[in-house]
Amino acid sequence: MPKKKLQKSFEDDTSILPGGILFSILVRLPVKALFRFQSVSMSWKTIIFDKNFRKAHRNQSRALGREKLLLRQRFSCDFVFRDPESAQLVMMDEKQLFPTNSLVVGSCDGLVLLKNVRAYKVFALWNPSTREYRIIECPYVSKKNLQVLVVCVMILRLTITRLY
Amino acid sequence: MVKLKSNDDKEFEVEEAAVIQSEMIKNMIEDGCATSVIPLPNIDSKTLIKVIEYLNKHINMGKAAETGEEDDLKEFDEQFVNMGWEELFDVIMAANYLNIHELMELCCQSAADRLKNKSVRAVREMLKITNDLTEEEEQEIINDAPWAFEGPEIDDTVN
Fold this sequence. Notes:
The structure holds 2 protein chains of 2 kinds.
Chain A: H1 4-12, H2 19-26, H3 31-37, H4 42-49, H5 51-63, E1 69-72, E2 79-82, E3 89-91, E4 102-108, E5 111-116, E6 122-127, E7 132-137, H6 145-163
Helix pairs in contact in A: 1-4
Chain B: E1 2-5, E2 11-14, H1 16-19, H2 23-30, E3 37-39, H3 45-57, H4 61-67, H5 70-80, H6 85-98, H7 101-115, H8 120-126, H9 135-144
Parallel strand pairs in B: 1-3
Antiparallel strand pairs in B: 1-2
Domain F-box (chain A): 11-56
Pfam families (chain A): F-box
Protein name (chain A): F-box domain-containing protein
């Protein structure tokens, strides 16, 4: 539940909704809406930015079994993000991505691990929902594929919680 | 039977098995505080009727899984949340006050579904929110994630 800082922002709210209820509604919104609704008011921004809110949101998305399909177009190599529940396709703008010449190594918990094909030690952990990524340099990667994969899975597990 | 009284002084009789889906009332009954009428000063009769309708339908939720009535219940839930915005908030507030977890989930999800494709302007108007961000702060949020403000699904209407 919301902590002190959040409590304050709830009290400041001029809306018809009490803060605790607003929290329960916002936590059920998709990521795109949350990015947009940060600009509704100061208290919405404070709630959505809060670490506890993000944690609650992740748990909620998991509980709802909210799944997305990440596809890659065969020739252009652009990523396409798809919600299986709606017909809508979301194209990823190249500028928002890790270098396009990358390989998908694996994914876990909504995060995708990409590997730069030109620089074998450079990886990126990418969250397609928020379109954020973090570059990770891994000095110990062997060129052998199997070992790369093992290390990748370990990196994934370790970094998942930090990115949220 | 348990008697509930709304804030406009109307009394409703509800089966105990139905009403104990409310954690609050369940605790009152267990503590022996529900001997006569339970007054609900935060809930009007119109909202209370909706809540009781829900409680009565969900009374045998455990059984529904066995008898294959789950689809029926799902259909009921879909119909149930098909109400006006203000009415939905009244039910959410009542569910929150009475601590009826499933009803709270159902109604908050419905509210979220109605909001998810709305524009920022529409949300402010629907929820009567005053924008207290400066123009610079607002622009900064837009610049951080311009993709979140674009798309054919974004709906600027208020309803």
